[in-house]
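The pair is quoted verbatim underneath.

:::
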Amino acid sequence: MKLTVVIVNYNVKYYLEQCLVSLYQAINDIFSEVVVVDNASTDGSKEYITERFPNLTYIYNEENVGFARANNQAMRKAKGEYILLLNPDTLLPATNIVEVLRFMDTHSDAGACGVKMLAPDGHFLPESKRGYPSPLTSFWKLTGMHRCFPNNPRFDRYYLSRLDENSIHSVPVLAGAYMMLRKKALDRSGLLDEDFFMYGEDIDLSCRITKSGYKNYYLPYPILHYKGESTSKESYRYVHVFYGAMDIFFRKHGSHYPLPYRWMIRTGIKIQTWLKLTIVCVKKCFFALRPTKEYMPCFLIFINEKNLDNIRTIFNSNQLNGHHHFVIVDEKSVINEPELLSSFSDEFTHVVYDSSAFSYSMILSLLVHNQRKNLQLGVYNAESRVLVTPEKNYV
């Protein structure tokens, strides 16, 4: 078998559904298997997904065992020559996996490959390619020097901004949201370290792959990443897990530093943890006292005419009463009129594409071509009648 795709799910069934639809289009001609490991979701994911995708393998855990352990469950049983670790809140163009596998087939030194990840507003996510989080690298990042001097290799050791995002590069660290792994490289490096519950396990694995004699490659093949929709970044639990992962990584890979230096770094991590917890607490108190202002999204929808009544029903049932604009269009019309979106005003918060009228490849191409600050991508899945946006899913 050529490929095993592993996806860990936790209460994001509509993102997962969209991911799987795009994934199956991308692996249509590849001898492959798809394994979803569910970390005790309570949103009905198991019933919803297995009914719609009967050919995948669905492993349901009775408790949340963490990202690393859940991935390892599937990787231990994987039959593929390559293993793709994929987040459920991603969307792939049809050519993506073929292109990545072609690269790995022709580059025997590639132990792992990552890709160009795009945010829902079209901007490049810098975590697509990273350096090791050494003490000095972390200092330049925390002080903001990497933003002031993005092309200076002294300060740009973490996000590697000096490396062209549209070119192929050998890099130290790849993101676990999309990590194509050579099975032979995993046999040498070992699987994900289960001491990491979430976060940091991709950095650790990237490090061990290079130590085992392989390279990690960044490839400029774009995908959409909604970026952690199953995890709140403003929660106490997130802070503990994230900075705990930093501590685990440094304890594991920082043994070559002098003891006083190691003590200082670990103390610094603890100070950062408490500072972030304080900030989260202050924000929660502030927003609790502040009068809440209702957020009303405003949608610009490019849709197939036959789905117009269905999406209007979704808007009515969700009380989306803004000044939305519907454009009856298809992919051919957009190709003939590439500046179509730019003719509309800036009043919209989201631009929505009907996936029955546009391929995922075209949707990503339009996202890049028409990217605007504060204009988020939405995708209407006509078959399941679900509107997926970065903030919320509407049914």
Remarks:
- The longest strand covers residues 215-225.
- The radius of gyration is 22 Å.
- The chain has a mean pLDDT of 85.
- The chain is about 35% helix and 20% strand.
